[in-house]
Amino acid sequence: MKAAYHPEFKASLEAALRHYEGIGRPLADRFKSEVKAGVNTVLSGMVDHAPGPHGFRCYRCRKFPYLVYYERHEQTTLFLAVIYSGRAPGLLGETLAGYRR
Asked: In what helix (H) or strand (E) does residue 3 lie, and over which residues does it extend?
């Protein structure tokens, strides 16, 4: 399966990386590796996360409080955003509503 990335995916990932770089570069590197592992897990097709109440599937990072949101299409997985899991559910739904094709 091919990967496609919404522009917000890269922007949200960079914002989270800046946050962790402010704490320390090694932590930012671990976060980036965790997100990459999540993307690879989703692309492997071995797991298929159920859509949440907002209609999007998400991979929960194991050691960081972030979710990787994505949509599956016939031959492509569209990665939407990397979002802090502590956000209010209503705000999260509003944010993700703009990602619909």
From this structure: strand 2-5
Domains of the chain, with CATH numbers?
Answer: 2-97 (3.30.2310.20)
- If we measure between CA atoms, which residue out of 62, 64, 67 comes closest to residue 52? 67
pLDDT tens series, the chain, 101 aa = 799 999 889 999 999 999 999 999 999 999 999 999 999 999 998 777 777 777 788 899 999 999 999 988 888 999 998 988 887 656 556 666 666 55
Side-chain half-sphere CA neighbours of 71 within 13 A: 16
Residue 52 has a CB neighbour count (10 Å cut-off) of: 15
- Concatenate the DSSP letters of all residues of 47-72 into one string: --PPP-TTS-EEEE-SSSSEEEEEEE
CA gap 42, 89 in Å, rounded: 23
